[in-house]
Amino acid sequence: MAYVKFSEGRKFIGRVPFQADLLDYLTGFAKDHGIRAGQVMALGAVSEAVVGFYDQHKRTYFNIPYHRHLEILNLTGNISLKDGKSFVHAHVTLSDEDGHAFGGHLMPGTTVFACEFIIHEYLTEQDLNREFDQDTGLGLWKL
Ligand code: ZN
């Protein structure tokens, strides 16, 4: 079985504080509220960003830093458990002053200018735990 069923849990809508680190804030929010599985959505703007790209040959992420103001067109992510703690995996689509879009795997170092988020908690039949996956080198759900 490569999936689990879930039912809806709590729902949260809020604002990420000015100058907060986006990934740290979302992860802390999930931990503080005991969210073991769920979905994250957000939009807004950042004063700088770091996204990652996973090199499938080298089996490592490399960071792409942007030291400029950008819009968050979309953040989509999920919450599961890694080492027993709430873990947020999120991807962002960003855009620049010309409206060009790009993005990647959200990394620490993304500083919020303004951001509105929605989190849906999912109550799963079994925990979604991330464990090292031999095929990809990634921490994937053990299902
Ligand atoms: Zn990712």
Shape, per Cα inertia axes? globular
Number of strands: 9
Question: Helical stretch count?
Answer: 1
Radius of gyration: 15 Å
Give the cofactors and ligands: zinc ion
Give average pLDDT, whole number.
97
Largest sheet: 9 strands, mixed
Q: Report low-confidence residues grouped into runs of 5 or more.
A: none
| Helix and strand sequence | EHEEEEEEEE
Structural class: mainly beta
* Helicity range: under 10%
The percent range for strand residues is over 45%
Determine the N-to-C terminus distance: 6 Å
Description:
With 143 residues, this protein is mainly β. The protein has one helix and nine strands. The chain has one helix spanning 22-32; strands at 6-16, 38-55, 60-66, 70-82, 85-95, 101-106, 111-124, 129-132, 139-141. Strands 1, 2, 3, 4, 5, 6, 7, 8 and 9 form a nine-stranded mixed sheet that branches. The termini are close together. The model has no long low-confidence stretch (mean pLDDT 97). Zinc ion is lined by residues 89, 91, 105.
